[in-house]
Design brief:
6 helices; mainly alpha; 159 residues
């Protein structure tokens, strides 16, 4: 196991993630343009991080089995996923990159990106604290606000 959940570093990262989730939800409700840039940064970083990690140390993703809420998910992570990590993580990272680009462009691309972000957050929620839940729920709420506000967030390219 690479992730040490009883280490204070894990809990600091968990707290920062949840504070970030709250910030994303609040800014999306009050200042959607600011939130859009924050989502762009978040998903751009996630794309880079997941590609780098998947290529350098793909075995760390197997650690998420420890946090998974459902037994079938534990079996999936410990089984097929452990042998096919790159097959899953690289497309997920590319999707994260596309979400970042869509958020950056605004308009209809922001709407597609927000739907992608909500889908991603729902997909990782069953990883429990491994996905920093409830941060994923808060970020999904923020993405929902950005999906509703997409028409007012146009850039020249997205018009």
């Amino acid at each position: 196991m690479q992730i040490v959940y009883d280490d204070s570093t894990f809990w600091i990262a968990y707290g920062v993630s949840n504070a970030g989730g709250a910030i994303l939800a609040l800014t999306a409700a009050r200042w959607p343009k600011v939130s859009r840039y924050l989502f762009t940064a978040l998903f751009g970083w996630a794309c880079w991080f997941n590609i780098s990690t998947a290529l350098d140390t793909p075995e760390v993703y197997a650690d998420y089995a420890y946090f998974a809420v459902f037994p079938f998910l534990v079996d999936f992570i410990d089984g097929w996923f452990a042998s096919n990590t790159l097959t899953v993580i690289i497309p997920v990272a590319i999707g994260q990159g596309l979400i970042a680009i869509g958020m950056m462009l605004g308009g209809r691309w922001q709407r597609f990106a927000a739907i992608g972000a909500m889908t991603f957050f729902v997909a990782v929620m069953p990883l429990g604290i491994g996905s920093a839940f409830p941060a994923t729920l808060l970020m999904g709420i923020g993405a929902y606000f950005l999906m509703k506000d997409a028409a007012t967030q146009r850039t020249p390219i997205a018009q």
